[in-house]
Write a structure and sequence with these properties.
The chain is α+β, with helices and mostly antiparallel strands. The protein has three domains: 3-85, Phosphorylase Kinase, domain 1 (2-Layer Sandwich); 92-291, Transferase(Phosphotransferase) domain 1 (Transferase(Phosphotransferase), domain 1), CATH 1.10.510.10; 298-327. Helix content is 40%, strand content 18%. The chain has helices spanning 46-61, 92-99, 104-123, 175-178, 187-202, 212-221, 227-230, 236-245, 257-273, 302-326, and strands spanning 3-4, 7-15, 19-26, 32-38, 70-76, 79-85, 126-127, 136-138, 144-146, 153-154, 281-284, 288-291. Helix 3 runs antiparallel to helix 5 (187-202) and helix 3 (104-123) runs antiparallel to helix 9. The longest helix is centred in the last third of the chain and has 25 residues, at 302-326. It is globular. The protein starts with a strand and ends with a helix.
Length: 327
């Protein structure tokens, strides 16, 4: 077996477009780790090399229980590499392949973990830009860890993506990503989160097509099929949340990942308090949720409200006429 510094390199865990991930063992501590090494055939591509080093610097900034933990990095044999924690219990993609879809309650639990990871990254100026099931790895406890920041953008540094270049995965790309908007923000990750939650709950990606052009067109112009047509027991408020995450314009999406995290947590707690049923809520991107049908006239039925208006009108009319009778 090959060695990189004090790491004994073992079996291949996966091969991507720019690197190979190996299982390895720290010969000093005995800890099992993963090592990502840049592919030899692209060593001469300076752009990819810079992006690989950018991924390392991004991971080095992040320290969160739901993000794959970066350990160290360097160059061995002329090939850049970095070492990270080993998360080898599969991925969310594996779970969906096996089960088709997951209960909406589990989708909320996973969503809470993903939102927590995203908010941590966003707080550090990092936009993932490639949120999808295969980039969410599972640990032995069944928790998710976000990985593969290969095309992530660090808003505190110069963007390495060429102007006008579209990056991402077709099924989860926001309209602004598709249009290669240079002002891509953290709202792009929220759009992908909506696509992801949709798939977890229904077992289907929100948009399908034989070509990427057809999928892109739907991302830009169409609403996905209603979730409750496929999963009738999914709460209406969860469906509305997902649809708002997938709003075409970034400003129409929720304020941030932390708000979505809180909304999903409240939804689960409400379901628990109600013994399995959830109180219907209206979702507000400005940061509020209230029971459906409740407004500033809470407690009044429409009939009572109309009667009240008629009574006020009668009194006003009577007072007006009384002026002429008295004077």
């Amino acid at each position: 077996m090959a060695t990189i510094t004090h790491y004994q390199v073992g079996d291949v865990l996966g091969v991507g477009t720019v690197g190979t991930v190996y299982q390895a063992k720290d010969r000093i501590t005995g800890r099992e780790v993963a090592i990502k090494i840049l592919l030899p055939q692209i060593l001469d591509d300076s752009h990819i090399g810079r992006r690989f080093h950018r991924e390392m610097s991004i991971l080095e900034k992040l320290n969160h229980p739901h993000i794959v933990h970066y350990l160290t990095g360097g160059v061995a044999g002329g090939r850049p590499y970095y070492v990270m924690e080993l998360v080898n219990a599969g991925s969310l993609r594996d779970e969906l392949t096996i089960h088709g879809h997951l209960p909406w309650q589990q989708a909320c639990r996973f969503g809470i973990q993903i939102c927590s990871a995203l908010q941590h990254a966003h707080n550090h100026g990092i936009i993932h830009r490639d949120l999808k099931p295969s980039n969410l790895f599972m640990d032995e406890s069944g928790n998710l860890k976000l990985g593969d920041f290969g095309i992530a953008r660090d808003t505190h540094q110069v963007d390495l993506t060429d102007a006008g270049l579209t990056v991402g995965t077709y099924a989860y790309m926001s309209p602004e990503q598709i249009c290669a908007d240079t002002n891509v923000s953290d709202k792009t990750d929220l759009y992908a989160l909506g696509c992801l939650l949709y798939e977890i709950v229904t077992g289907y990606q929100p948009f399908a097509g034989a070509t990427f052009a057809r999928i892109f067109d739907q991302h830009l112009k169409s609403d996905p099929p209603r979730i409750r047509y496929t999963v009738p027991d999914a709460p209406e408020e969860l469906e509305e949340l997902i649809l708002q995450l997938m709003a075409k314009h970034p400003a129409q999406r929720p304020f941030n990942a932390r708000y979505v995290q809180g909304f999903l947590q409240n939804l689960l707690e409400q379901q628990k308090d109600d013994g399995g049923t959830t109180e219907q809520r209206q979702f507000s991107a400005s940061g509020g949720a209230r029971p459906a049908g409740i407004s500033s006239y809470a407690g009044y039925s429409w009939g009572a409200l109309i009667a009240l208006v008629m009574l006020i009108g009668f009194i006003v009319t009577a007072v007006y006429l009384a002026q002429y009778v008295i004077f």
